Amino acid sequence: MEGQYIWRHPTCELQGNQCTSTLVKHIKAPVDLVWSLVRSFDQPQRYKPFVSRCIVQGDLKIGSLREVNVKSGLPATMSTERLELLDDEKHILGIKIIGGDHRLKNYSSIIMVHPQLIDGRPGTLVMESFVVDVPDGNTKDDTCYFVKALINCNLKSLAEVSERMALQGRTGPTNRV
């Protein structure tokens, strides 16, 4: 199933000492429900377990900034992120980290969701690509492993939240960017 979307998935351009990867998650919930969570730039804590709080500066639009507070246990307390891409027709969200007290420099992420049938029911294929600088003192493998672990945790949580909402008959939040 992923093969038909890989060629259409926007990728993050790799430069210099950076690492990149694309992760995939199949979710047993309708695409509109999953997309309603993914596109909520102002509420990433709805499915991202390491986010404790998010404050958006100004109106919600391309170029909007958010300050994300990170829960303890990670080597950071906050991150400043910019909304780079939001396409409700193609279900694509892009963000770039522009500041914070962490080592994820020049981090960009693109998330794309696609409808798919899972066990004969409406489901969703989620693909997330990232690119990030490799910090001094780290290897590409170490950096990629760390970021992939964070994204996999977020995707697992997205699946759990979406599937629980689907079972409860909820279709997602009504407030939209």
UniProtKB/TrEMBL annotation:
Keyword Nucleus: yes
GO cellular component: cytoplasm; nucleus
Keywords: Abscisic acid signaling pathway, Cytoplasm, Nucleus, Protein phosphatase inhibitor, Receptor
Subcellular location: Cytoplasm; Nucleus
CDD domains: PYR_PYL_RCAR_like (cd07821)
Protein name as catalogued: Abscisic acid receptor like
Similarity comment: family membership: Belongs to the PYR/PYL/RCAR abscisic acid intracellular receptor family.
Gene Ontology terms, MF aspect: abscisic acid binding; protein phosphatase inhibitor activity; signaling receptor activity
InterPro entries in the record: Plant_def-hormone_signal, Polyketide_cyclase/dehydratase, START-like_dom_sf
An annotated GO BP: abscisic acid-activated signaling pathway
Protein's UniProt keywords contain Nucleus: yes
Top-level taxon of origin: Eukaryota
Database matches in Pfam families: Polyketide_cyc2
